[in-house]
Amino acid sequence: MKRAWILVLPVAIVVGFSCSSAEPRNTAAVNSVNTSGPAHTPLPAATIDEIANGQKLYADNCTVCHKENGTGGEVVIEGTKIKPDDLTSAKIKGFSDEKILGYVMNGVPDEGMPAFKDKLSEGEMRAVVRYVRTELQKMPTKAAEAPKADQLAN
Question: Does residue 118 sit within a domain?
């Protein structure tokens, strides 16, 4: 009888362990985790509403100096003659979004551009930059996320 238990016991243990999990494990999900670093989800392209919002903000705040088409040029504001940059020029197209956003936020006092950080929210200023990039400069939208306001340097 002892011999029977010696044969039956190991078989019972193996059967017990193999049946102990009622639900199958999803090892594919565990094995597919990316451990190479943080995942970066690209921003979606601008929606029509976002572009329209940026266009309205640009019209309300920027067209006086930079004109509706973004070409800028000589203008008199509050008795002072200034020559705002042509936003459609190769020079401005070469600036990063962050640099343009910095100019919008902090202004360019020596050239007569006011700071908008106390007038517009960061989101509104970003909408203006996106509008300028996509509609005036005809540049494709970028997938990279721009840094937050506290990361910008003047």
Answer: yes
